[in-house]
Amino acid sequence: AQSVTQLDSQVPVFEEAPVELRCNYSSSVSVYLFWYVQYPNQGLQLLLKYLSGSTLVKGINGFEAEFNKSQTSFHLRKPSVHISDTAEYFCAVSLNTNAGKSTFGDGTTLTVKP
Amino acid sequence: DAMVIQNPRYQVTQFGKPVTLSCSQTLNHNVMYWYQQKSSQAPKLLFHYYDKDFNNEADTPDNFQSRRPNTSFCFLDIRSPGLGDAAMYLCATSRQSGLVGETQYFGPGTRLLVL
């Protein structure tokens, strides 16, 4: 079975600073990886996903993530955050044999301070 | 131009009183999912429909049922809500279940409070 670990439950950062949200996964088969953002009292919105090809994936709102197979990681980065990026971020993994179903990490709360 | 709609956004029910949450979609997607998300936790998949085929997760309690009368609508029925069932319930859709890595589109969620 696959699992997802988000290493930081809370990440406080000042506006315009860079940020990295860490995600590690474990699986015995190939996986597909996702990052979602959840604003307060809203559903999840896809930021980006890695299926194959280039290991550097660019998403919406200026976010990007890099798939590192040897380190089984898929860390999310943004070079300069805004107050509006304050939200909960979830990393998720989907097996290539388990179409449509994802396992989510416990989430990381990003708080951007002025 | 809402795509996945959940009603109501907030629901209060009494301990043991059946409650139904609804989800509708304008995307004409084949697959619809129900997730339970407790405070500060990851969303947990309860079940999903691929068209009319129902797929229950092994650890979903029998207290949770679902109906999908047509492509657009899907309902979550909680037969006897307990205090532990208070959570955000998220509905999601995807175009097909047969393709790996499919993007899921989430509704805004219904927050259920059990008194």
Output the keywords.
heterodimer, A: mainly beta, 6-stranded mixed β-sheet, 4-stranded antiparallel β-sheet, 12 strands, 0% helix, B: mainly beta, 7-stranded mixed β-sheet
Q: Which helices and strands appear, and what pairs or packs with what?
A:
The complex is a heterodimer of chains A (114) and B (115).
Chain A: E1 3-6, E2 10-14, E3 19-21, E4 23-26, E5 31-38, E6 44-50, E7 56-58, E8 64-68, E9 73-78, E10 87-95, E11 103-104, E12 108-113
Parallel strand pairs in A: 2-12
Antiparallel strand pairs in A: 1-4, 3-9, 5-6, 5-10, 7-8, 8-9, 10-11, 10-12
Chain B: E1 4-7, E2 10-13, E3 19-25, E4 31-37, E5 44-50, E6 53-56, E7 64-67, E8 73-78, E9 87-94, E10 105-106, E11 110-114
Parallel strand pairs in B: 2-11
Antiparallel strand pairs in B: 1-3, 3-8, 4-5, 4-9, 5-6, 7-8, 9-10, 9-11
* End-to-end Cα distance of chain B: 34 Å
Mean pLDDT of chain B comes to: 90
- Enumerate the spans of chain A where pLDDT stays under 50 for 5 or more consecutive residues: none
Helix/strand/pairing category of chain B = mainly beta
